[in-house]
Amino acid sequence: MPFQYSRRIYLADTDAAGVIYFAKGMEICHEAYEESLASSRINLKQIIEEKKIALPIVRGEIDFLRPLFCGDRITINLTTKLINSREFAVNYQIFHVANSDKILVKAKTNHVSIDPAKRIRIDLPTAILNWLEAYEIEN
Amino acid sequence: MPFQYSRRIYLADTDAAGVIYFAKGMEICHEAYEESLASSRINLKQIIEEKKIALPIVRGEIDFLRPLFCGDRITINLTTKLINSREFAVNYQIFHVANSDKILVKAKTNHVSIDPAKRIRIDLPTAILNWLEAYEIEN
Amino acid sequence: MPFQYSRRIYLADTDAAGVIYFAKGMEICHEAYEESLASSRINLKQIIEEKKIALPIVRGEIDFLRPLFCGDRITINLTTKLINSREFAVNYQIFHVANSDKILVKAKTNHVSIDPAKRIRIDLPTAILNWLEAYEIEN
Amino acid sequence: MPFQYSRRIYLADTDAAGVIYFAKGMEICHEAYEESLASSRINLKQIIEEKKIALPIVRGEIDFLRPLFCGDRITINLTTKLINSREFAVNYQIFHVANSDKILVKAKTNHVSIDPAKRIRIDLPTAILNWLEAYEIEN
């Protein structure tokens, strides 16, 4: 079951060409990721402060199928995929709130689990594994 | 009566010093402004496309009374003030969602009404005057 | 021959996890793209105002091989690739200024040439074809 | 003597209204502040990592006198002002590179010196006092 996150496209998300600035599309997807963590009671602030684990993005990709404009109300469908004990991927599909048939943007982020002080890979903690399972899609 | 807008502080809003990056505080206030316009059925996308009027910010100011951290859930109270037929101000107060007593951030933006092609000042349209009245505070 | 663009990593590019925020890596690459257009005397402001052509990004991808920190001085090597008469790609490699051996970040953007009013694909103009040729890499 | 910093206005700095997004004006000023620190051999990354001191902005203000467009080449003149042993201000004036007579944007940030763990005010270190002196303007 995907996690869903809705928000508006704001002026700050657009550029002088009149549509969404491409890198802002990735930022908006990351908001959905943070909301999905919060929905599983994973406290990002605490993770950052404790400095035991970090989940940096090692790869990001985004495809714009249709333009997004200032004021548009969008929904992001987020699904997860465990890759191995130290790595996972998050997939995002953006729709207009009123039309869940037409995908506007597709994106994906790949995250690794590291010790932030030593910057070496470590196993994903149980809380993250549970979150991954909650939003994983069979295919 | 103030307009209220709530959202979370996301990772993209913070910097390596661990708290909100100051200019992002202004962006978040501007989101509240856009939501308040939308709540009065003012269509920012249409305004931008028609190019009859623009409402650029000529002055912005922000005071950080207390730090905001990644993951914090905040509410912005927005109020308006008509300055003259071609200029208005918007005031913002940021609180934690759970604690409306303690102001964390105060901000203000001053906007002028212009013809975007000629970049000269023109009178505010009725829809904006009505929006200003809806959220104006007596004092 | 690649186009080269250097700049510092600023606080606004980082997040509370202490390193560059991933989507900012894409923004920095886009700055290199804009500087390379300017170096070929292509005026982006004029293109946007004339509204005859737009070159939106239809796909972006980025790989973080090593972290970037606040204050780091980086150089981006930009190369181009003509895909067909209406589409091109730009490749980016980010290094520390003092060390051009170790790639820190790789990124790529795919752009299409469109009529911005009708949002249909049109042929790339000569100025863009010349710019593509200037920074194209044989391989 | 002011510190000078030049850069271009990029697409990411603009919004769908066609000019610079107001909060980005503050970000660009902060880049000038970071460059001026670097010019005085103050290492922001080290300051952040050591966590002995932080210099958060408690107040920011910006005035837009004239619009900035995508592609514009600007110069920022930065000057400093010691307020007391725990507080300073930075003033910014933005010009077109080719025209130092006409101020386009004025901005100011107020910073306090704090212990980032306890978040209480502490005295400014000598390196910052020296940097303040280097760019302070008599008036």
From TrEMBL, chains A, B, C, D:
<dbReference type="GO" id="GO:0061522">
    <property type="term" value="F:1,4-dihydroxy-2-naphthoyl-CoA thioesterase activity"/>
</dbReference>
<comment type="similarity">
    <text>Belongs to the 4-hydroxybenzoyl-CoA thioesterase family. DHNA-CoA hydrolase subfamily.</text>
</comment>
<comment type="pathway">
    <text>Quinol/quinone metabolism; 1,4-dihydroxy-2-naphthoate biosynthesis; 1,4-dihydroxy-2-naphthoate from chorismate: step 7/7.</text>
</comment>
<dbReference type="InterPro" id="IPR029069">
    <property type="entry name" value="HotDog_dom_sf"/>
</dbReference>
<dbReference type="GO" id="GO:0042372">
    <property type="term" value="P:phylloquinone biosynthetic process"/>
</dbReference>
<comment type="function">
    <text>Catalyzes the hydrolysis of 1,4-dihydroxy-2-naphthoyl-CoA (DHNA-CoA) to 1,4-dihydroxy-2-naphthoate (DHNA), a reaction involved in phylloquinone (vitamin K1) biosynthesis.</text>
</comment>
<keyword id="KW-0378">Hydrolase</keyword>
<comment type="pathway">
    <text>Cofactor biosynthesis; phylloquinone biosynthesis.</text>
</comment>
<protein>
    <recommendedName>
        <fullName>1,4-dihydroxy-2-naphthoyl-CoA hydrolase</fullName>
        <ecNumber>3.1.2.28</ecNumber>
    </recommendedName>
</protein>
<dbReference type="InterPro" id="IPR022829">
    <property type="entry name" value="DHNA_CoA_hydrolase"/>
</dbReference>
<dbReference type="Pfam" id="PF13279">
    <property type="entry name" value="4HBT_2"/>
</dbReference>
<feature type="active site">
    <location>
        <position position="15"/>
    </location>
</feature>
